[in-house]
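Look at a sample.

——
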Amino acid sequence: MRQAVAARASPGWRAWLSRVMPVALIALALALIAPAHAADPDAAAAEAAGPATLRLLNRDIVTLRATVAGASPQRRVEQARERIRQLPDSAMDQPLQVLPFELGKLHGRQFLLGDANLFALYDTDLEPDGRRDLDALARHTRERLEEARRAWHETRDGPLLMRGLALTALACAVLALLVWGILVLGRRVVGWLESTRSRIAAHSTGIDWREILARLLMGSITLLKWVLIALLAYVWLRLVLAAFVATQPLAIALDGWLYRKLVWIVSGAAEGLPGLATVIIVLLLTRALADVLAYVFGAVQQGRLTLPFLHRDTISATRRIVTVLVWGLGIAIAYPYLPGSGSEAFKGLSVLAGLMLTLGSSGLVMQAMSGLVVIYSRSLRKGDYIEVNGTQGVVIEISSLAIKLVDIRNEEITIPNAVLVSSPIRNYSRLAHAEGTLLVTRLTIGYDAPWRQVHAMLEEAARRTPGVLNLPAPYVYQRALSDFFVEYALHASVRHAAERPAIQSALHAAIQDVFNENGVQIMSPHFLAQPAQPVVVPPPDWFRPPARPPSS
């Protein structure tokens, strides 16, 4: 009857539609199932030597496994397709016959459509497990051929094609409407959450859990939006494929593919649960051990506990090192139990991380090792006033890679730990709590000034300077007897090393005042010629004020 309907519709647009649309649908189906890449010659040879499946209108008919008369299974399938393709439309209603035959030792079944030869099955085409004999395979193949013939007639049914096109158009319209609605609704909800989050952040002074919740909701809604769009696209594709006879098997195959993927995900999650539980237990135990060690280190740092191998100045670095070791050990133990840890992706990431660490960590490791030397040598600590390579300042931060100083100009200076290890460190604060830290001022005075007077004036200037300690008392050394002058060095103690620049400036001012009061010039003389009289101090002037003669 369908053939008669198609014949009546031939003189017009319906005849054109009945001829063109099946070809277009078949081309679409073939494009959907086309291989993603062309096979190389070796792969093609391997495929030709293996089983090949005869497919008609996206329907599996039979799988051929035997090579007969030099024709591989793939070649036999191609010959069968070519014979079926050359059949006239009038032959499609001829009776389908299956005739037994023998070819030497081979037994087979020949399939005929009317008088036209289609293909032959041999007992060597049977499945290796032997679950089906040749007659059963022939009956099953005949049923598949009859089903393909019915599908061929339906592809030429104009009303059926029009209904498929109408369903496709309706599915496209519904999909576009739903996707548009999801995008608009998602954009409005995310915008409302963003404005709410901004309003909360503007009135919050710290971390607000509502802002965090708003961020999580925005991310979740965005993810849900795209999941819904992907689900709608799947449903649309399933409906479009099922609307046409030629692509109905693809719709069924799509359902099977989705089912297999869901089973794979669920089974993978179920198989990974024991390993995941082991990872959680190991990490919880690691966290508990790290907390216990942090409590012990905190007690040592606060002075509530004393251990012979831990010092308060190095306890912070020791705590960081031990914490890293504990967590590294915990991660190493938990890693094999992670789901997918044995996959090629994990192996590739491990190799990449190792390569990056090897190529880029030489300088980092050197700085870190230098930092350990600095910390465990206890050469400085936070708040100390130090000098390194001519740079003076107060230590404000000690890290594993560098230290930070603040100098008298309120400049922050970063010094790498490698520089600290290779340079002398002068710590003016380490011993300041006992006798203070020494402040040294040098000056040169001519030989015509009595040295006793100079000593007395420098000591007087130190006593006048605020911040200079009286105990230990300031003292003066004569560092050198040069050609034109004597070099004096005044040593005075100050309590707070960070005040050294200010105290030194005040001391210089006091020295100028005392020397001016006693009429002694600070400018060092240089001679162009030998003076007529010796430049000496006569004995009566040896004890000029403020110098005092020794008591008899």
